[in-house]
Specification:
By secondary structure, the protein is mainly α. The chain contains nine helices and five strands; from the N terminus they run ααβαβββαααααβα. The longest helix is centred in the first third of the chain and has 22 residues. It starts with 12 loop residues before the first helix and ends in a 7-residue tail after the last helix. 14% of the residues are buried.
Length: 220
């Protein structure tokens, strides 16, 4: 519910029960053995004003989802660290300014990555790509029904195939293309790109940080 390809979180009883069930499944071993729990990788991704519609509505739903996750963690008294602190606008507490030198330099490549669905959890479904992937997934499931039961269990055939084809093979093929964006830059231009990530040049995701602050107090 925290990703572009998922349903919208509305706070319904069924959705909250699903979150609770997912937590218990992932924490089952630790709960069984009464060990400390620390979650260091969680958090929704957020809509991009330059790409998405209803940005405010989508992001408010994602902040609400995060808040519900944190209420589960509060009740279970587990420790956490949000994933992640700083990025280029997907889910970080702070993010690079879209108009910074670095973001201007990679804008065309980001568009290409979206069109080819090279990102994982932040991917936006693309009709052209899915026309190729869907028949292959259907054929694999018919030929090898066990495909949907492979590890990790929440990743059915569809997720596995996109990972193998788009996010591993194709992503690897365009690595040099990305590196070449910086090949002819001067040292000064490279420094300006790097400065895009300086805290004072970044933007804060206020809604996310507010949700985190509300659950940040230590509890005995």
């Amino acid at each position: 519910m925290g990703f572009p390809h998922g349903e919208t979180y509305t706070g319904s009883a069924a959705q909250n029960e699903q979150l609770e069930t997912q937590y218990k499944r992932k924490a089952a071993w630790m709960l069984q053995h009464d060990t400390p729990i620390w979650n260091g990788e969680f958090g929704p991704v957020y809509a991009d004003p330059g790409l998405d519609s209803d940005v405010a509505v989508v992001n408010e739903a994602r902040y609400a989802l995060l808040g519900q996750q944190l209420r589960i963690y509060d009740a279970a008294r587990i420790h956490w660290t949000i994933w992640l602190y700083k990025d280029i606008g997907l889910q970080g507490m702070v993010h690079v300014d879209p108009h910074s030198p670095y973001m201007r330099s990679i804008a065309g490549f980001l568009k290409r990555k979206r069109e080819l669905m090279l990102d994982a959890w932040g991917r936006h479904p693309q009709e052209q790509v899915m026309r190729m992937i869907d028949p292959l997934v259907e054929w694999i499931n018919e030929s090898c029904p066990e495909s949907n039961d492979r590890y990790p269990t929440p990743w059915h055939t569809h997720r596995q195939i996109i990972r193998l084809i788009n996010q591993l093979w194709m992503a690897g093929c365009v690595q040099d293309e990305f590196a070449n964006l910086f090949k002819d830059m001067t040292k000064e231009e490279l420094e300006e790109c790097a400065k895009s990530f300086a805290f004072e040049n970044c933007m804060q995701r206020e809604g996310l940080n507010k949700a985190l602050e509300e659950h940040a107090n230590l509890r005995s």
